[in-house]
C-alpha cells in the first residue's frame, strides 16, 4: 500500500493534538465527561492513526510492544495497589477517604490514580491487540 | 431555535443513512457514513446548547477526530482488499 | 530542541483553552507534564523532510484563509444551484491532471486540501508534479485550471520574495 | 449559558444573525444530502457531501458561536470547526483515492485537459 502525501502530513499534524486531547480527557474526569477508559481509547486511536499512515513498524518504534505489555499489567497493579493501600490504611477496598487527612482530598487523589491505572491499561491493551492483528501472518 | 436546528440535522442524517443503505458501491456507503459522522458532531454541539451543558463540546471534539480515524481505517482496509484482488492499478482513466 | 519547545508551547496552549480551569494548581501541573510527554512523543514521530514548515507561513496564512473562505462560499453556492436546479445548471463531470508546482509536501497538502475544501472539485491523487482532480462541472475545472489557487498556495509556501508570489501579489492586489 | 456580550451589540440583532446562520447551515446541509441522494455516481456525490462538510458545518458552528459570546465555549466550537475542516477534505480525498483503487470509473462528459480550457 503506497503512502499518500495528504494523509501523512495531516495525520502528522493531528496526532500530537489527539494524544493531548486523550490526556486532557484523562485528567478532567471529575469536571466534565471523561475518564480513564475513554482517554485510553483516544490515546490508542492516535497511535493507530500513526500506524495507518506510516506503517505498523514506525508505530511500534514509538510504542514498543515490549514496553506495552508491562504497562498493561502496571495499570492493573496501580488500580489494585490503591485498593490494597486503602485496606492497609484501615478502610475498605478502594475506600479513598483514608488516603489523605481530608476525606474529599483523599477521594480526589484516589480517583485520579485509579483512572490513571485504567487509562494506561486500556491504551496498552488496545495497542497490543491492534499490533497483534496488523502484524500477523496471513 | 436550537431544537429546529437539531431536527434539521436529523433530517440530513436520515438522508445520509438512506444513501448508506442504497449503496451501490462500498465507497458510497463509507461516504454516507462519514457524512453521518460529521453531522453527529454538529448534533452533539447543538444538543449541548439545547440542554445548556457546554461539556458536550468535549465529546464533539473527540467524536470529530475518532470519526476521521475510523473512516481512514476502513478505507485502508478497502483499498488493501481492492489492491490484492486486482494486481494492475489504473493510474489513468 | 526548538521543535520540542514550540510543540510544547502549542500543546500547553491547547490544554489551557480546553481546560478553562486556570486557577487549579493540580490540573495546571498535570497539563505541563502531559504537554511535555506528548511533545516528547512528537519529536519521535517521523518527519520526512521536515514537511517544509517555516514560521513565515503563519504570517501569510490569514490572508490566504480569507481568500479561501470566499472561494468556499462561492463554490458552495454553485454546487447548491446544481443540486436544486439541474435543468438550468446541469452537471458535467470532468477528470484531469493539473500541475502542482508546490515544492514541499506541506505545500502540496495545502493545495490538495484547498481543492477538496471547495465543493465542486476533489483532489483524487497527489503526485510529485501534478494532482488528479475530479470536478463536478467544466466551469469548476476550468476555474481551477486557471491556476489562481495554485499561485496563491505557492505564494503562501514561498513568501513574497518568490517570483510566483510577486505575480500573485500584483495581479490580485 | 451565560452570555458575555459587549454592550454595543443588541441581543436581538445577534439572535437574528445567529438564527440566519443556523437556518442557512441547515438548508445547505439538506441541499448536500439531497445531492448525495440524486447525483448519478460516486465521484459527483463526493462534491455534494463536501457542501454539508464545509459551509454547512461552518455556518451552524458560527451560529452557535454567536450565541455563546466571548467564552471558552466559543473556543471549543472553533476547535471543532478547525478539526472538521482539517479532516473532512482528507477523508474525501482518501475516499476518492480508494474508489480509484476499487476500479470505479467516474462518469465524464469530456476528457479533462487543462490546455483545452477556455
Kindly describe this structure.
- Chain A is mostly helical and about 140 residues long.
- Chain A has helices at about 5-25, 35-55, 55-60, 65-90, 105-135.
- Chain A has one domain.
- Chain A contains five helices and no strands.
- The two termini of chain A are about 15 Å apart.
- The model of chain A has no long low-confidence stretch (mean pLDDT about 85).
- Chain B has three helices and no strands.
- Chain B has helices spanning about 1-20, 25-50, 55-85.
- The longest helix of chain B is centred in the C-terminal third of the chain and has 30 residues, at about 55-85.
- The radius of gyration of chain B is 17 Å and the shape is elongated.
- The model of chain B has no long low-confidence stretch (mean pLDDT about 85).
- Chain C has about 170 residues and is mainly alpha-helical.
- Chain C folds into two domains: about 1-45; about 55-170, no CATH class.
- Chain C has helices at about 1-20, 25-45, 55-85, 105-115, 140-145, 150-160, 165-170; strands at about 95-100, 120-125, 130-135.
- In chain C, strands 1-3-2 form a three-stranded antiparallel β-sheet.
- In chain C, strand 2 (about 120-125) and strand 3 (about 130-135) form a beta hairpin.
- In chain C, helix 3 (about 55-85) runs antiparallel to helix 6 and helix 6 packs across helix 7 (about 165-170).
- Chain D is mainly alpha-helical and about 120 residues long.
- Chain D has one domain (about 10-105).
- Chain D contains three helices and one strand.
- In chain D, helix 1 runs antiparallel to helix 2 (about 40-70) and helix 2 (about 40-70) packs antiparallel against helix 3.
- Chains in contact: A-B, A-C, A-D, B-C, B-D, C-D.
- At the B-D interface, helix 1, helix 2 and helix 3 of B face helix 1, helix 2 and helix 3 of D.
- Strand 1 of chain C pairs parallel with strand 1 (about 110) of chain D.
Global outline of chain C: elongated
The shape of chain A, in one word, is elongated
| CA gyration radius of chain A, whole angstroms | 18 Å
Mean pLDDT figure of chain A: 83
Q: Give the overall pLDDT of chain C as a whole number.
A: 80
Helix content percent band of chain C: 55-70%
Total strands of chain A: 0
Number of helices of chain C: 7
Query: What oligomeric arrangement do these chains adopt?
Result: heterotetramer
* Main sheet characteristics of chain A: none
Please outline the helices and strands.
The complex is a heterotetramer of chains A (about 140), B (about 90), C (about 170) and D (about 120).
Chain A: H1 5-27, H2 36-54, H3 56-62, H4 65-88, H5 103-134
Chain C: H1 2-19, H2 25-44, H3 56-84, E1 94-99, H4 105-117, E2 121-126, E3 130-135, H5 138-145, H6 148-158, H7 163-172
Antiparallel strand pairs in C: 1-3, 2-3
Helix pairs in contact in C: 1-2, 3-6, 4-6, 6-7
Chain D: H1 11-38, H2 42-68, H3 72-101, E1 110-112
Amino acid at each position: 500500500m503506497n503512502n499518500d502525501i495528504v494523509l501523512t502530513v495531516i495525520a502528522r499534524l493531528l496526532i500530537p493534538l489527539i494524544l493531548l486531547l486523550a490526556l486532557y480527557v484523562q485528567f478532567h474526569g471529575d469536571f466534565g465527561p471523561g475518564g480513564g477508559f475513554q482517554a485510553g481509547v483516544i490515546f490508542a486511536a492516535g497511535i493507530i492513526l500513526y500506524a495507518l499512515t506510516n506503517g505498523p513498524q514506525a508505530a511500534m518504534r514509538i510504542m514498543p510492544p515490549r514496553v506495552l505489555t508491562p504497562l498493561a499489567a502496571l495499570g492493573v497493579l496501580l488500580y489494585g495497589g490503591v485498593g490494597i493501600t486503602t485496606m492497609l490504611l484501615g478502610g475498605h477496598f478502594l475506600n479513598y477517604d483514608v488516603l489523605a487527612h481530608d476525606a474529599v482530598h483523599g477521594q480526589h487523589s484516589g480517583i485520579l490514580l485509579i483512572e490513571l491505572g485504567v487509562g494506561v491499561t486500556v491504551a496498552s491493551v488496545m495497542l497490543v491487540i491492534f499490533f497483534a492483528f496488523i502484524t500477523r501472518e496471513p | 431555535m436550537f431544537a429546529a436546528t437539531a431536527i434539521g440535522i436529523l433530517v440530513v442524517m436520515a438522508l445520509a443513512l438512506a444513501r448508506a443503505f442504497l449503496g451501490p458501491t462500498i465507497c458510497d456507503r463509507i461516504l454516507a457514513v462519514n457524512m453521518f459522522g460529521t453531522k453527529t458532531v454538529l448534533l452533539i454541539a447543538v444538543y449541548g446548547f439545547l440542554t445548556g451543558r457546554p461539556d458536550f463540546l468535549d465529546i464533539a471534539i473527540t467524536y470529530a477526530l475518532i470519526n476521521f480515524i475510523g473512516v481512514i481505517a476502513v478505507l485502508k482496509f478497502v483499498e488493501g482488499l481492492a489492491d490484492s484482488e486486482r494486481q494492475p492499478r489504473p493510474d489513468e482513466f | 530542541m526548538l521543535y520540542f519547545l514550540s510543540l510544547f508551547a502549542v500543546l500547553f496552549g491547547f490544554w489551557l483553552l480546553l481546560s478553562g480551569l486556570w486557577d487549579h494548581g493540580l490540573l495546571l501541573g498535570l497539563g505541563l507534564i502531559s504537554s511535555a510527554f506528548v511533545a516528547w512523543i512528537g519529536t519521535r514521530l517521523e518527519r520526512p523532510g521536515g514537511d517544509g514548515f517555516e514560521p513565515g507561513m503563519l504570517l501569510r496564512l490569514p490572508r490566504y484563509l480569507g481568500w479561501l473562505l470566499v472561494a468556499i462560499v462561492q463554490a458552495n453556492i454553485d454546487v447548491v444551484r446544481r443540486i436544486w436546479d439541474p435543468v438550468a445548471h446541469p452537471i458535467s463531470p470532468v477528470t484531469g491532471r493539473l500541475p502542482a508546482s508546490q515544492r514541499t509536501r506541506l505545500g502540496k497538502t495545502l493545495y490538495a486540501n484547498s481543492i477538496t475544501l471547495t465543493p465542486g472539485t476533489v483532489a483524487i491523487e497527489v503526485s510529485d508534479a501534478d494532482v488528479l482532480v475530479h470536478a463536478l462541472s467544466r466551469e469548476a475545472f476550468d476555474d481551477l485550471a486557471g491556476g489562481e489557487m495554485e499561485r496563491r498556495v505557492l505564494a503562501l509556501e514561498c513568501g513574497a520574495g518568490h517570483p510566483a508570489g510577486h505575480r500573485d501579489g500584483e495581479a490580485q492586489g | 449559558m451565560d452570555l458575555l456580550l459587549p454592550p454595543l451589540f443588541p441581543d436581538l440583532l445577534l439572535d437574528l444573525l445567529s438564527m440566519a446562520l443556523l437556518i442557512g447551515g441547515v438548508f445547505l446541509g439538506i441541499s448536500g444530502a439531497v445531492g448525495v441522494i440524486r447525483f448519478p455516481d460516486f465521484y459527483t456525490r463526493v462534491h455534494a457531501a463536501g457542501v454539508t462538510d464545509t459551509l454547512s458545518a461552518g455556518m451552524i458552528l458560527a451560529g452557535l458561536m454567536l450565541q455563546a459570546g466571548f467564552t471558552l465555549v466559543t473556543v471549543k466550537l472553533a476547535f471543532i470547526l478547525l478539526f472538521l475542516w482539517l479532516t473532512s477534505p482528507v477523508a474525501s480525498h482518501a475516499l476518492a483515492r480508494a474508489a480509484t483503487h476499487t476500479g470505479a470509473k467516474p462518469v465524464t462528459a469530456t476528457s479533462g485537459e487543462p490546455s483545452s480550457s477556455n
